[in-house]
């Protein structure tokens, strides 16, 4: 009976595997063809939009980050169709896609800051709002007992982010950069674990690395997006001219859709709703992303349009030059010459060529990213170093106090002995005189 039962289970397992293998084989070619069509739409529309921004590169501080956000669609679409076409490239494409997703989220936050006029103006804006809410005295140095300025706290960040002032910008930047760092580190860690066979993509088992990294990245992503939401809630009135809600929803939908879609497919496979086939699971995720990127590309054509950048403000972004041409004309001999003057005004717009645009995006944008990453790492390590220094200082002070106490104790003992000896000698001498 045992042998028959084992044989029956083995036959059922082989039938189960063959059925699912047939499903993947039947759906593979149609999925690749349909996915390629949607990918082509996404690539054409996104590249056309990026090319338009490079041609009308009149506001570098904003457009360098906007191009990085729009470029997220072709990156996602290209890597998804490659993974769908060749499942062996799936892990490498996932790593690149995840890394760029984190960078795109950082770029979107930098884009909002640039639209507000840069970090200096954002700090002034946040400080002014904080002063209004806290009713600070106008004259510096004048203190009022009734006016209390709350220190930074998580409670204020969750309930009253407007009172944090410039600290809100630091929190927002830290939230975005920490996700960018963690996403990149976990992506390469997944590659290492996969080489050792302990990653288990889509497997919720304790001896695989996938569930642990999924929890860490989920928390990191939620925190980054929440920091971005809080920053948007405080500054949305000043961002109204760029229609921030439409941009925020379109970008947030891409990030959330791809992440939760992958987790949802993994859960459905874990509970048996979908077949537990790695190729089928990865293929379904990539196929859906191809379709979603085509939809996102169409939305970006309206949401991130180049229309606001077709015209520039001369005093802010260009150099105005006036050229006057004078000429004298004689109609007949003996008549006084007539003077003609022609004045032309020219506005020179810097950085409008595609070569200069790409150079500014790569060089200046890369320097800004490195600067913020270094600043974030220093902010994270700073409290730890202070804690270590405090601990070392306390240990040194404790040892110093103990040393001083022991030395003072020895001096007191010696003085007591000398006093006793002195007293004893005095008593002894007094007794002899009598």
Automatic annotation (TrEMBL):
What SMART domains is this protein classified in? Answer: Solute_trans_a
Report the leader peptide range: none
Protein's UniProt keywords contain Membrane: yes
Q: Which residue spans traverse the membrane? A: 31-53, 65-85, 176-198, 210-232, 253-274, 286-304
Q: Which Pfam families match?
A: Solute_trans_a
Q: Does the keyword Transmembrane helix apply?
A: yes
Keyword tags:
Membrane, Transmembrane, Transmembrane helix
UniProt-annotated location(s) = Membrane
Q: How does it sit in the membrane?
A: Multi-pass membrane protein
One Gene Ontology cellular component: membrane
List the protein's name: Protein LAZ1 homolog 2
Organism per entry = Malus domestica (Apple)
